[in-house]
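Email to the structure team, subject: N-terminal domain of galactosyltransferase model.

Hi all, the expression group asked for a predicted structure before they design truncation constructs. Nothing fancy, just the tokens so they can compare against earlier work. One-line instruction: predict N-terminal domain of galactosyltransferase, return tokens.
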Amino acid sequence: MGRGVDGVLSPPVVRGNDWSVLADARPAEPPTVSVVVPYYRAQAQLDLVLAGLAAQTHPATRLQVVVADDGSPEPPGVGPGVVVVRQEDRGFRAAAARNLGAGAAEGDVLLFVDGDTVPEPGYVEELAALPALLPDALVTGRRRHADLTGWTPERLRAWFAGRTAPEELTEPAWLRQAGSLLDADDRSYRFVISAVMGTSRALFREVGGFDETFDGYGGEDWELAHRLFTAGAVLAHRERAVAWHDGPDWGLRGDDPVAARREKNAETRSLARLLPDPAARGVGGWWRYPDVVARLSPGSDVDATVLGVRSLLAAGLDLQVWGVDPDLLDGDPRVHAGEPPAAVLARCRTQVALSGPLRWAPGGLAGLVERVRPGGVGRLTGSVDGVQVEVAATRALRRCARWGVDMSTLFGEAVVDVPAEPLGQHPDLAHWLPRL
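Reply from the structure team: attached below.
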């Protein structure tokens, strides 16, 4: 146990994403938990969700329920003690509604369950345990599917007491493929769904919650999961935290295939602008939030600076450069003066720092970036004739800074031979440019 940035005890050491040391652990006392339920004009389904939350094994005195209404014409009906917050109806705004509910949350652990997804009695206890022990954790539960048409809270309670269960529908294969997420990688955000999700309230607020520019179905949970993972979150899948979605999975509803494809394409476009995943972005194009942020100390030689920036941009990466006057590169939108904005740093997976311009060998920088992906080390350092180079995973930088621990403790680091050469003073542009 170390000391965090605020002087409080840090959580148990979890290297990379291996949380197996905590797999069966439970906090000494139950944490305070807030469950946020987004809602819109579905009182019968909400009644079942609230009945499920009232039947939790987690102590009721340490459980707060917040219903976040996305502009229903009439407020939802809830029982005593349930908090209701409302926003005006401006279309489908589930991301904003969840943020509104989280703003009213008081528990140390923040859980989400959708307004049509009924938690089993052990849901809160199972999902909240890891974030209570490890405030960096982002945990997704298991969403199963059933036909709950016509069900009542009384019938639900009878089911939980061991009587007749509902008809179970097909569980989507893509969710079953998540496994434990002990070996989570850059694309494991795809297994995190806000219908059954939990983290610490502190971490949720640190990253700013859901991105409220999402104003349609889907995508906001994947974007948040990617941003949390980039912030150093430990991803985990708790299969014992089960909640039942009323109806089939989106992909199994049998909707019109053309309309369904358009809906998924819109989700992909929304994600591509915010999430630097090559699978969403493809090859080429300019993006406001790059995958790799490079900081370059340009030095006094303009020609060397221009060639150094050109070499970075030619590395075959989704990369942008900060610290250089963009007018030197004819206003290239990938080149920026000053420091990268916080919103850029919140999304980039890798950060590169150079104390001077270099000419990179083909594939050289891309190879170093690959070595700091999940499963590799957190940071690489090296030098070439006095030019200092650092290549680091943003998630490693963020988590180590949060808890005030060395990189070697949580992710590891290595000294490398840098596959580049210095440009020196006044290089010959006519000679160097064709070779980039």
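Residues 257-274 form the longest helix (18 residues). The domain at 292-435 is CATH 3.90.550 (Spore Coat Polysaccharide Biosynthesis Protein SpsA; Chain A). Ping us if the truncation boundaries need rechecking.
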